[in-house]
Design a protein that fits this description.
This protein has 336 residues and is mainly beta. Helix content is 11%, strand content 49%. It has a four-stranded antiparallel sheet with strand order 3-2-1-24, with no helix packed on it. A four-stranded antiparallel sheet has the order 4-5-6-7, with no helix packed on it. The longest helix has 25 residues.
Length: 336
């Protein structure tokens, strides 16, 4: 009869080997740049009378190839989704009962099954993963503002930066992978409802704030009420790109401006061929920028502009999107 003592070293060796391969896979495998792109499609192929589906694409920037991750029937207040490679699943927002608020759902790409994982009355935005933590902005029940939070993808618990703060809006949450910094916009709910803002300036005073992972060491980099800011992204150590409107609900096209952090100076930052910017992300090395917007011919699409070659192209080409495609809603730049 085999001696059980002989099996113990073998089992320990096997366990160590498994742990080593797991570590190497998640920590040593060269990471790649991706766009995760959310598009909306007509469920009946024609219009919204039978509802819509939300498609999530992963665009490999190096290979210039878009792969469909999932196409889910949804009816959310605001569609947002993120593919988590480690768990091979999609986290997304939906309002399955038409109640006028959203919850988070998890779609398992192996079992093709979806389950609800939050049970409040919420709205979600700005969803991405950093070091196995799902960052997002949440407007929870009874709150008037969006709050930055971390969602545990295993226990489904939400931890807010400040759950009690019901005045500070946090929007445009993003992460720079090389600099390991979070960036966000803040403004006061009380201040934006004042007569000066609603009747005179029509501009909400905004702050650009930088934080470390876990929302640590928050630092205000810039404050303005000279123009409206909706989105901010870090370009490099000393520069931040932002969208600019002359005021709320401005009839003029939304453009980009560049903030130099060290001096606090702001300058226009036009992209040749782009007429209006809806959303944008520069790459980590600052060599290219992806823009969801309209070109000079007023064609809405997702574009890539190379700062070195001065060339512009579309991310999706003919045949990449299904025939029932409605529009590209939003996207994020990520590395994994």
């Amino acid at each position: 009869m085999p001696n059980k003592k002989h099996f113990l070293p073998i089992l320990l060796l096997l366990w160590g080997t498994i742990c080593l391969f797991s570590y190497l896979y998640w920590h040593q495998t060269p990471k790649k740049e991706y766009l995760q792109i959310v598009t909306l499609n007509y469920r009946n192929g024609i219009d919204t009378s039978h509802g819509i589906t939300m498609a999530l694409f992963a665009y490999d920037i190096a290979e210039k190839k878009a792969n469909l991750i999932a196409d889910l029937p949804v009816d959310p207040t605001y569609p947002v989704a993120y593919y988590d490679r480690k768990r091979n699943c999609v986290f997304y927002s939906d309002d399955k009962i038409g109640a006028g608020y959203d919850n988070l759902f998890q779609y398992d790409l192996d079992t093709k099954e979806s389950k609800q994982i939050t049970f409040g009355k919420n709205e979600f935005n700005d969803m991405f993963v950093v070091n196995d933590k799902l960052y997002l902005n949440v407007a929870p029940q009874y709150s008037t503002v969006m709050k930055p939070a971390i969602f545990n993808m295993d226990t489904y618990e939400i931890t807010y930066l400040d759950e009690t703060d019901d005045d500070t809006w946090y929007t445009s949450l993003s992460y720079h992978h090389r600099l390991k910094k979070l960036l966000a916009l803040t403004h006061s709910d009380a201040e934006m409802r004042t007569h000066r803002v609603t009747a005179e300036t029509h501009i909400r005073p905004k702050n650009i704030v930088m934080m470390e992972e876990g929302f640590q060491n928050q630092q205000t980099l810039y404050h303005t009420e000279d123009f409206e800011i909706c989105l901010t992204r870090q370009l490099d150590e000393n520069h931040i790109l932002m969208t600019a409107d002359k005021m709320m609900v401005s009839p003029e096209p939304r453009v980009l401006k560049l903030l130099e952090i060290s001096s606090g100076t702001v300058s226009d930052f036009p992209i040749p061929g782009i007429y209006e910017v809806y959303s944008f992300y520069p790459t980590d090395d600052g060599s290219r920028i992806f823009i969801l917007g309209r070109n000079d011919a007023w064609e809405s699409n997702l574009y890539i502009y190379d700062f070195q070659t001065k060339k512009i192209d579309t991310v999706f080409h003919e045949g990449d999107l299904p025939s029932n495609h409605r529009n590209i809603l939003d996207f994020i730049y990520t590395i994994y």
